[in-house]
C-alpha cells in the first residue's frame, strides 16, 4: 500500500470541512481503538483463548475486562482482518461457534486467537 492510500484502520474520522475540534476528537478515537485492540489481544492471550472450544463472546470479554460491551464488539472485525503481535507472536482473531452467552444470555458468535507465526 502506498503512503497516499489509507487502510481500514487509518480511515479519517473527520471530514475536510469539519472544525479543528473534530480532527482532535478523531485522533483521540484512533488512539483509543488501537489501545483497545491491544488490551483485548493481551487479555485473550493471558486467558489462553486459542481455540474454538475456549472461544468467548464479545459480551463475555467486555464483562471480564470491565469494558462496555460495545468496545470488544467494535474491535473484533478489525482484529479478524489485521494480524497483531503480543510478546512478539503474531495473531489474528477467528470466529468460533454460536452459543448462549454467559454474560447476556443471547445466542452470540464466539472469538478466539489463532497463532499466525506457526
Itemize the secondary structure elements and their pairings.
Layout: H1 20-46, H2 58-65, H3 70-81, E1 84-86, E2 89-100, E3 107-115
Antiparallel strand pairs: 1-2, 2-3
Helix pairs in contact: 1-3, 2-3
What can you tell me about this protein's structure?
- This protein is of the alpha+beta class and 118 residues long.
- It has one domain.
- Helices cover 40% and strands 20% of the residues.
- It has 3 helices and 3 strands.
- The chain has helices at residues 20-46, 58-65, 70-81, and strands at 84-86, 89-100, 107-115.
- The protein has a 3-stranded antiparallel beta sheet.
- Strand 2 (89-100) and strand 3 form a beta hairpin.
- Helix 1 packs across helix 3 and helix 2 crosses helix 3 (70-81).
- It is globular and about 50 Å long.
Instruction: Record the strand order, biggest sheet.
Output: 1-2-3
The tally of domains stands at: 1
- Would you tell me the overall average pLDDT? 83
Q: Describe the biggest sheet?
A: 3 strands, antiparallel
Radius of gyration: 16 Å
Helical fraction equals 25-40%
Beta content: 15-25%
Characterize the overall form. Answer: globular
- Number of helical elements: 3
The SSE string, one letter per element, is: HHHEEE
Structural class based on helices, strands and sheet pairing: alpha+beta
Low-confidence stretches: 1-9
Strand tally, please?
Answer: 3
N→C terminal distance: 25 Å
